[in-house]
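sorry for the late reply, my laptop died twice this morning and i had to redo everyting from scratch. anyway the thing you sent over, i finally got around to it. pasting the sequence first so we're on the same page, its 110 residues, then the predicted structure underneath. double check i copied it right bc i was rushing
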Amino acid sequence: MEFVFSYWLALTFQASHVVSEVEWPTPDPKDLTVHQDWLSFVDPRRAEMQVPTAQDYTDSWFWTVFTGALNHQTAHHLFPGVNQGHYPIITSILQQTCQEFGLSYIIPPH
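ok and here's the structure:
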């Protein structure tokens, strides 16, 4: 059983993280320190970093239930402490907000 769930989890993560559409930022080799402010929920640079490095792969109700809302990966990255039941609503707000601020919100066509 663990074998099956391990593959399911790996594939779920792959669909959101290991795709060519997302950005793969690289650190400045002259400054390899961890910037704690990137982890702050109030720092706007955190959102600017998270949005282009995550991809939602569908807004389907089935996949939301089947993956524990991990198909709403951008909302998950920005609001990890929020109950996953709110992710579909947050996702629509995020898409509008990203459009307003010129950020690319990545979700492939169905």
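DSSP finds five helices and no strands in the chain.
thats about all i looked at so far, will dig more tmrw
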